[in-house]
Amino acid sequence: MDFWRAFSAACSDTTPLPADPQATPETQALYRNLFRIADEGVMFGHQDDALYGHDWKYEEGRSDVRECCGDYPAVFGWELGGLETGADRSIDDVPFAEITRLLCAAYGRGAVNTVSWHPQNPESGASAWDGKTSTAVSSILPGGANHAQFRLWLDRLAGFFAFMLSLRTDAGEYVPVLFRPFHEHTGSGFWWGEAQCTPDEYKALWRFTVEYLRDVKGVHNLLYVYSPDLYRDAEHYTERYPGDEWVDVLGLDAYHRPQDWDFLSGGERMLSTLQRLGHEHGKPTAFTETGLEGIPDTAWWTRRLLPVIRGKGLSYVLVWRNAHDRPTHFFGPWHGHASEPDFRKFAANREQPVLFESQLPDMYH
Ligand code: BMA
C-alpha cells in the first residue's frame, strides 16, 4: 500500500490549486506534495549538481553531493539564462540540450527540478546584472519598446518547458518544474530590482510572464516560485508580491555574507516571517537559494544552516552551484573539502530531517 498515494488522494480536496488551474496532473501532484513533504523534512537542493562539480564537468552520474553523503540531492537547480537569446548554451556555458536531458533524468528518478533564469538586460543587451537604468522593466511591458522582444524570449522559454521536455520523457509527460523568475527583487543587483522598477511595474512583469506562458503559450507544467532577497519585514516581503493567484511557493534567497549580516539571527527572523506568511497565504515555503561562498566555516552545515532551517516548515533548501572553473566559487559540499564530515552530520541529523533523492515519496502522484 502506497501511503503517500492514499494520503494524497484523501487530502486532495483541501490543498489549494496552483496558479495554473490547468496544471498537468503531475504538476498538481507535485504541488500537493510540496505542502506535505514539509511535515517529513526539508528536501536538500543543489544548483547545477548533475552538470559539474568543484573540479569536474560533464561526467555522467557524478554529483558532489552524492560523493559526500551517498545520495543525490532531492532538488536539482538549473539555470536558463541565455535561452532567451536563442543561444544553445547558457550564461554558464552549459548546453541547454544537456540541461534538458539531465533534468528529465532527475524527474525520472523522482527528484524535483527548479529553474532560475537570469535574462540579459533587454535595453542594453548586457547581462542580468546590468541594473544601471530604471526603464528596462517598463520597456518590456505591453506598450513598451521592447515588448515584442520579451514575447520572443517567453516563446523560447515556453519551447523549453513544454516542447523539449515533453519530447524526452518516455511516458510523454511534461516534466513539472518550479520556475523562479525575477528573483532577489528586494535587492538591486538585477535590472528587475528594487531600485530599478516600481512595485507596480514588477507586479505587471510577473503577471504578464505567468499569463503569457500559461494562457497564450499553453505551458501547464510550471509552479511559480516568488523569491525575494534579504528583507526587512513582512511588508517589505510583500511590497512587490503579485498576489496569491499568481504565485505557488513563497521563497527566500539569502546568502551568508558574514561581513554584511548575522546569518543566525537574520535567518531566524526572515525564515520565521516566511513561515508565518506561508500560513497566511496558504503557500508552501522554501529557502530557494543560500550558501556561504567557499565554506570557510567547516561546521557551517550543522552550526549555521541547520539552526536557521530547523522547525520552519520549509519544503526545501537549495545551495548554489560548485563552479568547476572558479576554485573558490562553491556553496555545496564536495568530496575532500574540510566541511564534508559536517555535511554528513547535517544530512543524517534527526532533529530536522533533511531529505535526499532516495528518501522522497512519489512526488508526482
Ligand atoms: C551567480 C554566479 C554566476 C552565475 C550565475 C547564474 O550567482 O554563480 O557565476 O553565472 O549565478 O548561474
Written account of the structure:
With 365 residues, the chain is an alpha/beta fold. Helices cover 36% and strands 13% of the residues. The chain contains 11 helices and 11 strands. The protein has an 8-stranded parallel β-barrel. It has a two-stranded antiparallel sheet with strand order 2-3. The site of beta-D-mannopyranose (BMA) has 7 residues, from loops.
Radius of gyration: 19 Å
Main β-sheet, in a few words?
Answer: 8 strands, parallel, barrel
Return the average pLDDT rounded to an integer.
Answer: 95
String of helices and strands: HHEEEHEHEHHEHEHEHEHEHE
- Note the total helix count: 11
- Please give the order of strands in the largest beta sheet: 1-4-5-6-7-8-9-10
The fraction of residues assigned to DSSP E strands is 5-15%
Distinct small molecules: beta-D-mannopyranose
Helix content class: 25-40%
The outline comes out as globular
Distance between the termini: 14 Å
| Poorly predicted spans | 1-9
Give keywords.
365 residues; alpha/beta; eight-stranded parallel β-barrel; two-stranded antiparallel sheet; 11 helices; 13% strand; disordered N terminus; binds beta-D-mannopyranose
Topology, element by element:
Blueprint: H1 3-11, H2 25-40, E1 42-47, E2 52-53, E3 56-57, H3 64-69, E4 75-79, H4 96-108, E5 112-116, H5 136-140, H6 147-167, E6 177-180, H7 199-216, E7 222-226, H8 234-238, E8 249-253, H9 263-281, E9 285-290, H10 300-309, E10 314-319, H11 340-348, E11 354-355
Parallel strand pairs: 1-4, 1-10, 1-11, 4-5, 5-6, 6-7, 7-8, 8-9, 9-10
Antiparallel strand pairs: 2-3
